[in-house]
Structure formats: C-alpha cells, structure tokens
Amino acid sequence: MKVNLNLAVVSLCCVIVVVMRVSSKNMMRAVQFREPGGPENLYIGEVERPVPGKGEVLIKVKATAINRADTLQRKGLYPVPAGVTDILGLEAAGEISEIGPGCNQRWKVGDRVMALLAGGGNAEYVSSPEGQVMPIPSTLDFPQAAAIPEVWVTAFQLLHAIGKVMAGETVLIHGGASGVGTAAIQLCVQAGARPLVTAGSAVKLETTRNLGAVGNFNYKEDDVVAEVMRATNGKGVNIVLDCVGGSMYETNINVLGMDGRWVVYGLMGGGNVNGDLLRKVLAKRLSITGTTLRSRSLQYKEQLVQDFSRLALPLFENRTFRPVIHTLFPLAEIGRAHELMEDNLNTGKIILQVEESTGKEEL
Ligand SMILES: NC(=O)c1ccc[n+]([C@@H]2O[C@H](COP(=O)([O-])OP(=O)(O)OC[C@H]3O[C@@H](n4cnc5c(N)ncnc54)[C@H](OP(=O)(O)O)[C@@H]3O)[C@@H](O)[C@H]2O)c1
C-alpha cells in the first residue's frame, strides 16, 4: 500500500513537471500594461505564445522598436484595430520559427526577417502575415533591421504612393529627425527630389543635414516660411509631409506652391485649425490627404511591403540607405524607452533588444 502511494506521488510529480514544461513552452515574455496611463504602467509579463494562423509565420523576435502609436495605445488613446493583439509593437526583426498553414513557401524556418505588424512586436514571438515579412539585407543586424519596417514603409508610402513625388520636386518634411523623417529624407534624395526639413534642435538638424536635407530649419527659432521661400526662390514646395497638424497649418499653406500636395499623417501639434485655410487651398489648388498605415487592409499593406522590398531593400544592401538608431534598450527597459520618445529626445529610432545577440556581431 505504501509502495503504491509513493508511486502515485512520483507519477503526480512527473505529470506536474510535464505540464509545466508544455505550458512554459507555450508561454513568452511580452510588454504589457496594467491600465491606460504613463510609462510606469509598462511591465514584462508572461503571456501565451501566438500560434501562426492561415497564411502567417511565427517570428522569434531578436529586436523590436517603439513608435508613437505605442505611446498613444498605452495612454488608451489609440484603439487597437479589430482582430489585432493588444501587445504593443508595430515592427520586429528575428528568425522564422514556424510556418503556419496555407503559406506559399516563400519563407523557411531560420530565415532572417523583419516584419511590418499591426501589433505584437514587443514580445519574444510574434505572428505575422507572410506578405508583410521582408528579408533582412545581409549588411544589417537585427537591431538595425528592427528600425526599418514601420517608419521606412510609412515614409515610402507617404512619398510615393500618396505624395507621388517626382524628380526635381521639393519636399518639406516636418519632424525631420524623427524615425519617419530620417527615412523620408533618404528616400527623397534617392527619388531625385530636394528634401527640406524642420526639427527642434541644432543637434537634430546636424543629423538631417548629414542625411541629405538641403534646407534644415529650427521651427522653434527660425522663420520657417521665409526660409522655405528663400530656399525655393519664392516658388514654395511641391509636397509637405506633415506629422504635426494644427500648430503647423499656417506654415504649410504658406510654404506650399501651386498645385502643392499636403500629406497629413500625424497630429503631434493637435488637430485644430483656426483661420482662413480654405482661401489658400482654393487659390493655390492645393490637395490635402490624410493617411494611416496600421488600419489599412492586409492586401494594401502586402502590396506596399512588396513594392518597398523591390525598390528600397537593395539600397540597404549596398549601404545607400541606413536606418538611423538613437538608442538600444533591453526589452525590460520599455518604460524608459517610452519616456525618451515622449520627451522628444530621440533622433531616429528607439530599439528594444529582446535577445542580446545582434545576429551579426561584426557589423
Ligand atoms: N499615419 C501613419 O501611418 C503613421 C505611421 C508612422 C508614424 N506616424 C506618425 O509620424 C509621426 C512621427 O513618428 P516617429 O515614430 O517617426 O516619431 P519620433 O521618432 O518619435 O519623432 C517625433 C518628433 O517630432 C517632433 N515633434 C513632436 N511634437 C512636435 C510638435 N508639436 N511640433 C513639431 N515637432 C514635433 C519631435 O522632434 P523635435 O525635437 O524636432 O520637435 C519628436 O522627437 C508621429 O506623429 C506618428 O504618429 C504616422
């Protein structure tokens, strides 16, 4: 009887160990927040590892990044699109660890990839539609790759798909030292257009100048309208890439030339306009287009990612383009990363390292 009891206890222990092994295999670390609010609410929690659905691949994340949308979501000001995980993170770089059902064999386990995500990147694993995954150029490590999907694909969309930039045109880029701005400057130069930028400090403007911006204006000190008109011989710019909105609207209507295109993709300066906006829109035949990327259809995002992969990735491979990184934090320091971004201190991207290895230590 005693022997039987001992056997029962041993068997129970074995079952518990097996169950723990299985369940820990299905768990992962991910950025979580207790309730909407400040960066102090962020923590690393244990959650279930995603299972790749039809047409999806699972990525073992080595590096990811933060974006303004994450800070807004954390504050409860950015509703997660329907059907999307509420884990933060719009981009990630790592290795394919599993192929979901119905994939078209484009990827295999172990491939080095980066992905444009609707969410879920700030975690050890993320599931992504296979069409939103891109190969990492051989010249880049994981943190550099994690700096690309969201801001570079956005900038590519703003300039080409929406702004229809043409060689010889002039583009004014607000937030020139931001993640999107540093990408947009390089894409502009490559398109044969002239980038002018605004930013809020001399240090940031030094970086934008080095990236190829031909006019670099401090919107806190300079008369931006006068400077832009001087830089364009009084003609004004063809395109404004505007992530500021309300506080910059007068500048924008004054610097845009005839038939100018005003692309609104962020509202860091608020959404209110209060003045005779439409008179100049009419007189200059301006067009105003608002755009968001996260909420676009799968099909739209996949096409954009394919276009970007074809036209822009080779230029990372030959080092014409370079992702601009401000800081690398371990994933656990997610709160500090959000603070840095909300204090407007970053030039380029803030990266989170999920694993210490960069995957290319020699770079
Ligand atoms: N619509 C889309 O699909 C889409 C996609 C991605 C990003 N976005 C938007 O694009 C913008 C840039 O994103 P990001 O991740 O590249 O940003 P980021 O790296 O955090 O940089 C944003 C920079 O903008 C400047 N800024 C902040 N508030 C400002 C204001 N009121 N007036 C003028 N400049 C201001 C700050 O630099 P200074 O020191 O120069 O002031 C700040 O560092 C955000 O608004 C984001 O939401 C939109």
From TrEMBL:
Pfam families: ADH_N, ADH_zinc_N. The keyword Lipid metabolism does not apply. Keywords: NADP, Oxidoreductase, Signal. It comes from the Eukaryota. The keyword Ribosomal protein does not apply. Residues 1-24 form the signal peptide. Gene3D superfamilies: Medium-chain alcohol dehydrogenases, catalytic domain, NAD(P)-binding Rossmann-like Domain. GO terms for molecular function: NADPH binding; quinone binding; quinone reductase (NADPH) activity. Transmembrane segments: none annotated. Residues 37-352 form the Enoyl reductase (ER) domain. This is Enoyl reductase (ER) domain-containing protein. It comes from Littorina saxatilis. The lineage of its organism: Eukaryota, Metazoa, Spiralia, Lophotrochozoa, Mollusca.
